[in-house]
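Input (DDH domain-containing protein):
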Amino acid sequence: MIKNLDKAAKRLIKAAEQGERIILYGDADLDGVCSAIIMQETLKTLGGSVQKVYFPDREKDGYGITKKALRELKRFSPALLCVMDLGISNFKEIEKAKKDGFDVLLVDHHVVLNKLPKADIIVDPKQKGDKHPFKELAACGLTFRLAEEMLGKDISTALRKSLVELAAIGTTADMMPKEADNKDIVQEGLETLENSWRPGICAFFKLQELERFPNIESKLQKLISILNVRDVEEGCPASFRILTCDSEREATAIAERLLEIHKLRKQQTQKLLDKVRSSVAEQADCPIVFEGGEDFDYILLGTVSSVISQEQGKSAFVYRKMKGESVGSVRAPSGQDTVKAMKHCAQYAITYGGHPQASGFRIKNANLAKFKKCLIKYFKENCPA
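Output:
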């Protein structure tokens, strides 16, 4: 049993049965979005009342539980704040949420830093005392396990298929290792994905763009790349809007719009990759890639850092420089721990965190050079070529 999974299930069931206000707070990536939908539909099945589903804007407001979010959500207090795919490093923000009258339930899978935040209940396999043998579940995988615990034997075959499809999408999108629990979740989800009842998924599989792919795995990868397109309306990512859409006609319109944006993004990504490659070629001896600028589109950072890291065999720190601060995406080859590296240089960062090979950071522009120098020193000493 994953530590606190049963405790979290009981708390959520109680909130549903007693008609408590419930706020779902998820990261805006596919792992966080799928987690939020799994929890929303599970609570709805139990008769729970979800007052608000909230996704922070990483570029404008920062990663995790943000001050802006707490200001906006305070009007719902008292309530149960269920946080998914983030929060494990939001120490001050969780204390603030509790002072504002929220009970905080945290479902996260990111690396625990020096301590745990003071949430009421924490589900994270990486926390001390967790005896579950597999530590690499995605947040949506954890949320799916939580849904299983909440619904028990009463879960219908149709509902289970619907939820595990979402867990398979989020787990694959977050590039979690396809072994143990993840392998089971992805395999089960793929069995019914092409014949899903969910209008948003049906709409995608009817796109001509997906028909040319030879198997379900390659089709899923294409679906994910389109769902990852950043298109936010009234605080909701397009992936959430389409995956919760009741009408296939409406879902098809969203899918076609995302496909067009996706094609444009591919062209923009190629231009940015060429720019970074040119700069990297002049710094062959540097143990990391550390590139950014005001013209670096935030939504392209993850893809660019991933490609550059694979090409160079180095950890790639790629950032967008904004007024006063920069926000970055980090990718690394196997065996390099970027969270540990940033922890070593934490004095220069505002926030940082994630997984060893896929993480992110936010930093004041005045500290960029110091942060880079510190990281270079760390990698020279700990990851020699």
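Residues 141 and 157 are 18 Å apart (CA to CA).
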